[in-house]
Design goal:
The chain is of the alpha/beta class and 537 residues long. It contains 18 helices and 21 strands. The radius of gyration is 24 Å and the shape is globular. Bound molecules: acetamide (ACM). Acetamide binds next to loops.
Length: 537
């Protein structure tokens, strides 16, 4: 019997005898509570099949009994499946039909992603293929994830990607059962989050005069303005789009460093009495927020607006790479340090982060920060640390009883090269191969069981200095995202050769979706020499 290939690999998949087919008489039987998942399934299966797959009430006559030979799809919310955890599911394809069951809508959403992978890759097409047969092998699948935080980070600040690009990205990560989209909404080079209270953040702060051309070390510029920002309704739509696919958006407002775009819009937020431009260079700007009451009010107001748009528990406040040069010579910063009795600038940042943590906790949310937030004194209660500078920060935080997301540069920074091949398109530096990603274990060696449970999971990062186009994002994301997805869903320690064998089949799905992934055999011919600026120097 042919082997059904599902990526990430399910916990258990038993191939049983026979196969069934969907046809135009097939319906989706769903209780009212599962109707949103029926809508998702229809969105996934109707375009290529051309079948309406209408809703039917449980107990109503099925499509197969009315006419045709197609089976029905039944969705069931079953509290007994709690044993599979909050995102697990059971999927049975048999003579009696197709059944998806879970204790949660999240589990049913995950089941939908498995179901579509049981059908021919052409199911991923956008146009109907009249006359095609849509068969599924009979199987019994029981599946649940190894980690609860299975993330994808996208930097929409260095290069802006419009909402339709982000929703496609959500589709692609959801296909791989990744459940967090970490949106890096602000940085020195652009502010993408709309604020009613501070409209200049997007009016001024979302556009820079030009971008660096080729590698930053070449010091060249393209002379072309770049910018863009989301509207509130676009962000609300993205939140809903993600929620329908078990993807929660974690918004990041990077504070107090990486804020030159904000200071360009509102110079009083800075430490100098001068007007700055939205930064046109890549790197880490020296210009950071001041620590006045007004600047903290600004942060709380922005975060308040963020909470209105993003309902998820976690809100990321950055905290990374905040140079202290301005604070060390600023009279108000020195006065703040003295007034609070702090040891220096690092503790000043710790105090600043604590204010943000208090605000978020007071609003029922949890602060997430890059691992630099460990450096300024005690972490805010309930903080979650993203360990990016290796694993040390994550290990320390987990041992201290804080939750962590492990996303060290090696191998989680997907803005790094995918091989040493000189034909790889231009990247920032480094090398994280598919094999490196697949070999990753988010729980660092030596972390005892008492602390290991604080490792929520992992995510990949796509910083976009060198990713000006959506196709560049896809090239760097895939297929490494499939490898990380299998680590965080199926668990670490998988067999690379087996993964690559299955991945070759899975890539046919990405082909139909038109994903510009990096081929397993080497850099994409389309990328080679496509644009001089995209080539590795
Ligand atoms: C980071 O890469 N600055 C988190």
């Amino acid at each position: 019997m042919d082997e059904p290939i599902v990526v990430p690999r399910p916990t258990s998949l038993e191939r049983t005898a026979g196969s069934v087919a969907l046809d135009r008489s097939s319906v989706i039987v769903a209780p009212v509570a599962a109707r949103p998942v029926a809508a998702l399934l229809r969105a996934l299966l109707s375009p290529a099949t051309g079948y309406a797959l209408p809703d039917a009430q449980p107990g109503a006559p099925g499509g197969a009994e009315r006419d045709g030979v197609g089976v029905d799809i039944a969705l069931e919310v079953d509290p007994a499946l709690d044993r599979l955890g909050p995102e697990g599911y059971r999927l049975v394809v048999g003579d009696a039909g197709i059944g998806l069951s879970s204790s949660s809508l999240a589990g049913l959403q995950n089941a939908c992603q498995t179901l579509r992978q049981l059908v021919d890759p052409s199911i991923f097409g956008r146009a109907p293929r009249p006359g095609a047969a849509w068969t599924l092998p009979c199987v019994v699948v029981e599946d649940s994830p190894a980690f609860t935080w299975r993330g994808a980070h996208l930097d929409v600040a260095r290069h802006f990607f419009p909402a339709h690009v982000v929703s496609r990205f959500i589709d692609l990560i959801a296909l791989h059962k990744l459940n967090v989209l970490h949106l890096h909404l602000t940085d020195d080079q652009g502010w993408r989050f709309p604020s009613a209270a501070y409209p200049l953040l997007t009016e001024i702060g979302s556009w820079r005069a030009e971008s660096m051309l080729g590698h930053a070390r070449a010091g060249q510029f393209d002379g072309t303005p770049h910018g863009g920002a989301y509207t509130r309704s676009e962000l609300a739509d993205l939140v809903a789009y993600g929620a329908a696919r078990n993807v929660t958006i974690v918004p990041e407002i990077d504070l107090p460093g990486h804020t030159q775009a904000a200071i360009a819009a509102y110079p009083s937020l800075g430490n100098l009495d001068e007007t700055l431009e939205v930064w046109t260079r890549w790197g880490v700007s020296e210009h950071v927020l001041n620590t006045s009451d007004a600047a903290l009010d600004f942060c709380r107001t922005i975060l308040g607006e963020v909470l209105d748009v993003f309902p998820g528990t976690y809100v990321h406040v950055g905290g990374d790479e905040c140079p202290k040069t301005e604070w060390s010579t600023s009279a108000p910063a020195r006065a703040r340090i003295a007034e609070l009795g702090l040891a220096g600038e690092d503790e000043l940042q710790g105090w600043f982060t604590a204010q943000l943590g208090e605000f978020l906790a007071g609003n029922g949310r949890r602060l997430v920060g890059w691992d630099e937030i460990l450096e300024g004194g005690p972490l805010p209660v309930g903080a979650t640390v993203m360990s990016w500078r290796g694993t040390r920060g994550g290990v320390a935080a987990a041992r201290a009883g804080f939750d962590v997301v492990m996303c060290p540069e090696a191998p989680c920074y997907f803005d790094h090269y995918q091989s040493d091949d000189p034909e790889e398109p231009l990247a920032i530096h480094g090398r994280n191969t598919l094999a490196d990603v697949y070999a990753y274990d988010p729980v660092p060696d030596g972390l005892g069981a008492d602390a290991a449970h604080h490792v929520l999971g992992s995510q990949f990062e796509l910083w976009s200095e060198y990713l000006p186009r959506p196709e560049d994002v896809e090239y760097m994301a895939f297929p490494r995202a499939a490898a990380l997805a299998e680590v965080v869903w199926s668990g670490p320690g998988g067999d690379l050769a087996d993964f690559e064998r299955r991945l070759a089949v899975h890539l046919a799905r990405l082909d139909v979706l038109g994903v510009n992934y990096r081929p397993l055999a080497g850099p994409h011919p389309w990328q080679r020499g496509g644009r001089g600026a995209r080539r590795r120097p």
